[in-house]
Design brief:
The strands form two sheets. An eight-stranded parallel beta barrel has the order 1-2-3-4-5-8-9-10, surrounded by eight helices. By secondary structure, it is an alpha/beta fold. It has one domain: Aldolase class I (TIM Barrel), CATH 3.20.20.70. It has helices at residues 12-16, 26-37, 61-67, 83-91, 105-112, 116-132, 155-167, 184-194, 214-223, 251-260, 269-282; strands at 7-10, 43-48, 75-79, 96-102, 136-142, 146-147, 151-152, 172-177, 203-207, 228-231. It binds 3-hydroxy-3-methylglutaryl-coenzyme A (HMG) and magnesium ion.
Length: 290
């Protein structure tokens, strides 16, 4: 990989479709992932193995994994909040799982029904079993800038949870600006603190685009040395437990911005456009986001 390579981690099929008001038919999810597999992406978060009572939109995770045509070289990932989710994900043959915590206590309670400390305890066996099974392990920290219930979140708290996830064996921790309140200024303040102890190479940026600042936040993160960013095709997304969380940073504008600035991503914009067109034509409710 060249020095000017930026990795794009596509989260639309999970972080996007989990928030669609209607349940998207499995065949459309599968078709979308298959189109994304042709774009040069190396990382696609395909689904999540969570409680269907909590997130009914992801109830067909096993069927989605069984339906997709896997492209060699692409890592297909899924969220796994607990052992039940991990076991189902391994059975479905995922390549990577993600444990997801929060820097804010209230969001942790609302999203995964436990305190931050309890979540880290719960992740220990999940991480051990994932690594023992030979799948890679990613981590998320939500609310790295602000929480929908508590407001501003202290960078030191983000650092604590990030380090805990790295200590569990995550190869990377993705920093979620869950409600998209970050600005270049607050993003910079976060990295000034975080990078005191955590190397930029272990971090990814996951910026929701509620206030239209996500691209600027990526530019700030690039200046701090981050080289991996999550985005969602068509700007899909949000989180059902984060009121006000609008779409994720949209993949095509992100790639265009990176190309204009001289970065490489390995992604084919025409093929990304085909995947985005498929969304617009077939998946109800997304046209506003695109
Ligand atoms: P709980 O209710 O405390 O769990 O939920 P429980 O262990 O008491 O189980 C309750 C029921 O759920 C039981 O079923 C379990 O079997 C079932 P019952 O006996 O009542 O019939 N269950 C499961 N079913 C399938 N798969 C599972 C599973 N676990 C339990 N894995 C739990 C705790 C963590 C399960 C729940 O809170 C949950 O599923 N939360 C997930 C919420 C979620 O997916 N949020 C969105 C993703 S996070 C996000 O979007 C942020 C991110 O994008 C970054 C950012 O932007 O910040 C990553
Ligand atoms: Mg998210």
């Amino acid at each position: 990989m060249t020095d000017n390579f930026v990795t794009i981690y596509e989260v639309g099929p999970r972080d996007g479709l989990q928030n669609e008001p209607a349940i998207v038919p499995t065949k459309h999810k599968v078709a979308l992932i298959d189109l994304l597999s042709q774009t040069g992406l190396r990382h696609i978060e395909a689904t999540s193995f969570v409680s269907p009572k909590w997130v009914p939109q992801m109830a067909d995770s096993t069927e989605v994994m069984a339906g997709i045509k896997r492209k060699s070289g692409v890592t297909y990932a899924a969220l796994t909040p607990n052992m039940k989710g991990l076991e189902a994900a391994l059975k479905a043959g995922v390549d990577e799982v993600a444990i997801f915590g929060s820097a804010s206590e209230s969001f942790s309670q609302k999203n995964i029904n436990c305190t931050i400390a309890e979540s880290l305890e719960r992740f220990i066996p999940v991480a051990k079993a994932a690594l023992a099974a030979g799948v890679s392990l990613r981590g998320y920290v939500s609310c790295v800038i602000a929480c929908p219930y508590e407001g501003a979140v202290a960078p030191a708290q983000v650092r604590k949870v990030t380090q805990a996830l790295l200590d569990l064996g995550c190869y990377q921790v993705s920093l979620g600006d869950t409600i998209g309140k970050g600005t270049p200024e607050t993003t910079g303040i976060l990295f000034d603190d975080l990078l005191k102890t955590v190397p930029a190479a272990k971090l990814a940026g996951h910026f929701h685009d509620t206030d239209g600042t996500a691209l600027e936040n990526v530019k700030t993160a690039l200046d701090y040395g981050l080289r991996c960013f999550d985005s969602a095709i068509g700007g899909l997304g949000g989180c059902p437990y984060a009121p006000g969380a609008k779409g994720n940073l949209s993949t095509i504008p992100l790639v265009e911005m990176l190309y204009d600035a001289g970065w490489q991503t390995g992604l084919d914009l025409e093929k990304l456009q085909m995947a985005q067109d498929y969304l617009q034509s077939n998946i109800a409710g997304v046209s506003d986001a695109v």
